[in-house]
């Protein structure tokens, strides 16, 4: 994510670290205004838990953005995975089986997206929106439109609750997903092929890279991660609604875009996405804690994202 | 660029001007865009102001994941109380439990009874649904076709739907020819477009005789569609006593009735109960009901030709 050689206070450093500086400034401002609430260990744990599902979806978004595509079905996939798990619990399925089926469903949705995009050359915006809408209908059908919260096994809830030596269990999932994804993206041949595919798909094809397989695989990864995020969100809440995941889509892409500004080349990357998710989480968490009215929260949130991006651009002049 | 950062910081401080003297209460809801929810929130703010409390309002625009997170955020500020509006606390049980365990009393308005909630103040939603269904069925002479606008994710609305189901079972001459799950927020426009389709699917006079709206905004959306299509002979009733719906009833439109929930009463009861708990006492009951009122042309004294 961050390349060596750029000092923090140099023009290049500001360009590279602008988002990070914005995050630090935000934390300082919130800490100054509400030291007893914002700058506490309990709130740090809250924050880590709050950003986990968004971070996992933003990771999926980053994979897809790296190859120059978009997947608009993430939120719908997350909702369906949660609903499906609860539906299966209600029909007597054990937790591991229900989770495997829900995750498989997410991967299957990703496969469908990938095939439409890679095989049939349907624009990813259209294909994933269409598949997502179908998934949304499935979630509605399984849930009957009602909120589901009865008979949820405690073992399922425990996937997202409690702590492990003081670190929230829910966020362990985020750490695992981010770590594995970062390793895949930066050190494996597959990750390097994705970068090449995103930079120049024609050249990647002419060079004999398995473009079709890699594109489909990326969408499968995105679907799987979305399903995982949906399961974890529903475990955290102990309830699920068929529209539960839809609010995650735009913040995930906003985070991935913001994170892309934290690399020298401006390409999406896992570390940057995590930084973007953290900024999004800190902004909402901090504004809520200091009691900013809902209308002002939206204005301030948009302004802060713009300021973070402008900080990077301004330093690059 | 330094100026931008400075301005943002100053803006935050300016927006933050709410931390004043007196007890601090946090109000959290996913449905502030709904008129009824806003009325409850504003009613509570008014009651709170009279008690010298400071109220911070948080809305998550229908996002339940964010709703859970924001409860954690406000609990971190250790308010004197948390008020959840228009939501079943069981949907965010872990967060409500955590707040209660931290010694923060949680009150729900238009929610549901819960072990970690000191009291839920609501209308009896089944009674609301039954009152409106009975009125609507009578208005179409006990026979005909209706369409339903609903939103089962809301626990109160779900009870109203159950009341309609029971009323339909008891009135075999009334048939449900269409139903639509309303998207929130944006419920008026969403219902309008759905009604456009329902009208096309049920063309011709008498194909639809009535619209059953689980709350007033979908009914208002349906009315816009009916007006645009120029369809006659369809009546609409909703629930909540939304001021716009009452204006439509007064105006002798297709909107003929609404059942008013006492949102102001609910907010007042909630504030009073929370005041008791903050003062070291206990709430009167784990669930309290505010009175309901059927509003029609007759009750408003309107004569229509």
Structure commentary:
The complex is a heterodimer of chains A (317) and B (305). Chain A is mostly helical and 317 residues long. Chain A has a single domain, classed as ABC transporter involved in vitamin B12 uptake, BtuC (Orthogonal Bundle). Chain A contains 13 helices and 2 strands. In chain A, strand 1 and strand 2 form a beta hairpin. In chain A, helix 1 runs parallel beside helix 12. Chain A is globular and about 50 Å long. The N terminus of chain A is likely disordered. By secondary structure, chain B is of the alpha/beta class. Chain B folds into 2 domains: 150 residues, Rossmann fold, CATH 3.40.50; 137 residues, 3-Layer(aba) Sandwich (Rossmann fold), CATH 3.40.50.2300. In chain B, the strands form 2 sheets. Chain B has a 6-stranded parallel β-sheet, sandwiched between helices. A 6-stranded mixed β-sheet of chain B has the order 7-6-8-9-10-12, sandwiched between helices. In chain B, helix 3 runs parallel beside helix 4 and helix 7 packs across helix 8. About 3% of the residues of chain B have low confidence. The interface between A and B is large, with 55 and 48 residues.
């Amino acid at each position: 994510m961050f390349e060596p050689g750029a000092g923090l206070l140099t023009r290049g450093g500001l360009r590279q670290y602008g988002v990070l500086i914005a995050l630090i400034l935000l934390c300082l401002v919130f800490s100054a205004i509400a030291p007893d609430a914002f700058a506490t260990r309990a709130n740090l744990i809250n924050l880590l838990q709050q950003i986990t599902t968004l971070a996992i979806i933003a990771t999926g978004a980053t994979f897809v953005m790296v190859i120059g595509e978009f997947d608009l079905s993430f939120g719908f996939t997350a909702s369906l995975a949660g609903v499906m798990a609860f539906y299966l619990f209600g029909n007597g399925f054990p937790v591991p089986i229900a989770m495997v089926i829900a995750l498989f469903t997410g991967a299957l949705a990703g496969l469908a997206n990938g095939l439409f995009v890679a095989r049939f050359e349907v624009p990813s915006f259209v294909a994933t929106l269409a598949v997502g809408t179908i998934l949304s209908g499935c979630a509605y059908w399984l849930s009957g439109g009602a909120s589901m919260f009865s008979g949820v096994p405690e073992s399922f809830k425990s996937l997202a609750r409690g702590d492990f030596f003081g670190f929230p269990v829910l966020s362990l999932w985020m750490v695992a997903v981010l770590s594995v994804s970062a390793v895949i993206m930066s050190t494996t041949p597959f990750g390097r092929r994705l970068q090449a595919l995103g930079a120049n798909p024609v050249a990647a094809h002419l060079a004999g890279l398995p473009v079709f397989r890699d594109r489909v695989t990326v969408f499968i990864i995105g679907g799987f991660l979305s399903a995982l995020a949906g399961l974890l969100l529903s475990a955290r809440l102990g309830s699920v609604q068929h529209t539960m995941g839809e609010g995650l889509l735009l913040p995930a892409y906003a985070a991935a875009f913001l994170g892309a500004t934290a690399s020298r080349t401006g390409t999406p990357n896992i570390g940057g996405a995590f930084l973007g998710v953290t900024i999004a989480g800190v902004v909402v968490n901090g504004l809520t804690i200091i009691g900013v009215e809902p209308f002002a929260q939206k204005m301030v949130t948009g302004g802060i994202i713009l300021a973070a991006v402008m900080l990077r651009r301004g330093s690059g002049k | 660029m330094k100026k931008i950062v400075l301005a943002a910081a100053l803006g935050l401080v300016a927006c933050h001007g709410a931390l004043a003297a007196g007890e601090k209460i946090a109000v959290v809801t996913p449905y502030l865009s709904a008129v009824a929810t806003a009325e409850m929130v504003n009613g509570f703010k008014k009651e709170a102001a009279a008690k010298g409390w400071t109220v911070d309002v948080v809305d998550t625009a229908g996002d339940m994941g964010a709703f859970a997170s924001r409860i954690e955020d406000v609990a971190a500020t250790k308010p004197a109380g948390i008020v959840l509006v228009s939501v079943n606390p069981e949907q965010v049980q872990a967060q409500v439990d955590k707040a209660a365990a931290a010694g923060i009393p949680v009150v729900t308005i238009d929610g549901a009874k819960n072990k970690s909630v000191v009291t839920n103040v609501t209308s009896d939603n089944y009674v609301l649904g039954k009152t409106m269904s009975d009125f609507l069925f009578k208005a179409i002479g006990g026979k005909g076709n209706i369409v339903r606008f609903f939103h089962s994710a809301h626990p109160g609305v779900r009870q109203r739907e159950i009341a309609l189901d029971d009323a339909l079972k008891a009135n075999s001459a009334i048939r449900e020819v269409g139903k639509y799950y309303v998207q929130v927020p944006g419920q008026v426009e969403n219902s309008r477009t759905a009604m456009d389709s329902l009208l096309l699917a049920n063309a011709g006079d008498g194909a639809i005789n009535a619209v059953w709206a689980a709350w007033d905004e979908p009914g208002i959306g349906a009315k816009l569609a009916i007006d645009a299509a120029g369809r006659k002979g369809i009546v609409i009733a909703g629930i909540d006593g939304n001021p716009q719906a009452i204006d439509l009833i007064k105006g002798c439109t297709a909107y003929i009735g609404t059942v008013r929930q006492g949102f102001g009463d609910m907010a007042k009861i909630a504030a009073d109960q929370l005041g008791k708990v903050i003062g070291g006492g206990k709430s009167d009951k784990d669930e309290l009901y505010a009175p309901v009122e059927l509003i029609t042309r007759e009750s408003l004294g309107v004569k229509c030709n």
